[in-house]
Amino acid sequence: MSRNPASTAATGPNPASTAATGPNPASREGLAAGGVAHGRIATTNNPTGADGRTLAPVERRLTQLVLRRDHGPYTVLTVADPDGPRPDPGQFYMLTAARRWGGGEDERPFLPRAFSVMRSRDGELDFLLEDVGPGTNRLAELGPGDGLHLLGPLGRGFARPRDGRRPILVGGGVGIAPLAIWGDALGAAALTLLGFRDAAHAEGRALIPGARIATDDGSIGFHGLVTELLRAELGCDPRAEVYACGPPPMLDAVKRIADDHGVPGQLAMESGMACGFGACFGCVVPTKRGYLRLCVDGPVVDLSLVPGVHQSDPARGAGSPAEVTRS
Amino acid sequence: MIEFCGISLEHRIVNGSGTFDAIAARRAFGDAIYEQFPFAAFVSKTVTLAPREGNPPPRLWELPGGLINSIGLPNKGLEGYLLEDLPQLAELSVPLIVNVMGSTREDVARLVGAFAERDEVAAIELNVSCPNVKTGLIMGADPSELAALLDHVRPHAAKPLIVKLTPNCAAPADVAAAAEEHGADAVSLINTLRGMAMDPHRPGEPWLGGGTGGVSGPAVRAIALSQVREVRERVSLPIVGMGGVQSGHHATDLRRVGADLVAVGTESFRDPLAARRIADEASSLEEAFPANAARGVGVVRL
Fold first, then answer.
1. If contacts are CB pairs under 8 Å, which of residues 179-198 in chain B contact chain A?
2. For chain B, what is the largest distance between any 2 Cα atoms, rounded to a whole number of angstroms?
3. Closest-CA residue of chain A to B218
4. Contacts of B29 in chain A (CB under 8 A)
């Protein structure tokens, strides 16, 4: 799981999961549980559920890796999915290598790993990962032609900005993945702010051309936190809606800054996840409506449902964000 | 068709309680999951009298060949379940088995009585892995405690009662024998084995929000085989066997040591249709080598 990305590295917290980026759940009402029921983007004639999400085929599909590209410490896996539906921005997939899933560090991985879709086109899906644990390690070994099992698209994605607000996308590290597909859907109206640790990680900026960049060490772009860029933007014009995905401390800061400016937003969150479709109840995050399963009620959670900082324990990832890939 | 406690089933594979949420799956997959429902009967998550939020996260930890979960039985409570969940589950094309848990014999009796009168419910499974707050004993860990529970609860239901045995006790077969003697219609086993994991970032602290959790998956398969066999040697009740089943071979192994039905749990997390594949594989194997497991006939003696 991942939680803590950075730290996870080797040993990782396990598990189980990690992943996904997911959305947020809701629960009882079936519909708006995650609090983001407003206008999603109709991508195609996909089969959709009562809440407008694109439904996943029930079957786990065996597919192939088409291409892999490295950007600094990140790897983009392009996976063939000729028969799958076009995902909503913010939805995620459960991935498993078809061979040798298990037998890595600590005899893991065992469970599939959840990843937000970074882009989709012509029967192909792009996923972004960073090798931080036994699951991502195995996936990062795959080359073109290698088999993967794919289940998805799952969860609830992003909803359009309310009241014609200007979308501002804020991504940190491997959490930039769902913002790429969402930025593509929003078009030129969207401003994207990305934060990375250092120059090596900032190679990930190639994945979202036109984004403004911040690095912790100042090696590329603004020297400081990406959330400082967000604060400056909202200071100039608070008629915005914020979309964010990244490590827990970043999401906490986004929440604080958006609240300070009275700006609505949506977070793509992450939590350890075993199944991705509501079976295990493992991926809950605390919200103002109680625990929500990120896999079916998220991974996108409306900012208004997210408790203030310190109500969750970000260091353990329990309530946190969504980075999609850690583990 | 096969028969289990008077219920007709299309095949022998069901789900373990708490390992599949048909309502949530329908949100993810649409009606297709109801149309291609992988289980021959659906066993619900545990229902308690009052709603439960469940344990604080983290709730999962991946293991070599399995996982530990500490979910804490989140559910809407009896009233919420009857109002919101039961009508949706009634749309399933397979029989519904409701799993219930109470912290006193009276609570369990109320739950059993409430579901006994619902036509949507084919059978009731008792989760006895929790303490009786009045005696301090785990209801399913002690034969006399279980006997007293069944004596209290049995009169409230004409429907089949299945006792879900816990492996976290000295002698599950003794508890199974008490279940048979005091009116249970079937037993199911194994439940998860208690386990824990340490937080890699906080030395000495447990990882799971609930402190400890239950171990499941292939890691427990060998234990399931041995406990099912042991229970089969003591009782002639139908047995729902489970624990780490990932293939038709695993299901058939459990059948050969005495299980009538086989439940799939953790493997469904990896593939929502795993149970359908396992059922197909197991039925081909059984055609070739009949298991004859029913009621202890032909059970393998090792």
1. 197
2. 54
3. A110
4. 55-58, 277
- In angstroms, the separation between the Cα of residue A180 and the nearest Cα of chain B is 23
Instruction: Using alpha carbons, select from B293, B299, B225 the residue that is nearest to residue B4.
Output: B293
CATH topology of domain A162-316: Rossmann fold (3.40.50)
- In three-state secondary structure terms, B243 is coil
Residue range A110-134, pLDDT digits in tens: 999 999 999 999 899 999 999 999 9
Contacts with B64 from chain A: Cβ below 8 Å: 102, 106-108, 110
Q: Which CATH class is domain A50-154?
A: mainly beta
Phi, psi of A269 (to 5 degrees): -105, 165
Indicate if the pLDDT at residue A8 is higher than 70: no
A52 backbone dihedrals φ, ψ, rounded to 5°: 90, -5
pTM of the model: 0.90
- Which of B61, B197, B270 minimises the CB distance to A112? B270
pLDDT class of A309 with cuts at 50, 70, 90: low
User: Measured between alpha carbons, how far is B197 from B269 in angstroms, rounded to an integer?
Assistant: 20
Q: Which domains does chain B have, with CATH numbers?
A: 2-54+73-193+218-296 (3.20.20.70)
Q: Which helix (H) or strand (E) holds A41?
A: none
Chain B CB contacts of A102 under 8 Å are 64-65
Distance from CA of A191 to the nearest CA of B (A): 31
Which residues lie below 8 Å from residue B254, measured CB to CB, with a gap of 6+?
B224, B225, B228, B241, B242, B243, B245, B262
Closest CA to A191 of A146, A229, A136: A229
- In B222-241, the residues whose Cβ lies within 8 Å of chain A are none
In terms of DSSP bridges, do strands A113-121 and A92-97 run parallel, antiparallel, or are they unpaired? antiparallel
Any alpha helices (H) in B90-170, and if so which ranges?
A: 105-116, 143-153
Each domain of chain A, given as residue ranges in start order, spans 50-154, 162-316
Q: How far apart are the first and last CA of chain B?
A: 30
Q: Least CB-CB distance to B29: which of A3, A58, A102?
A: A58
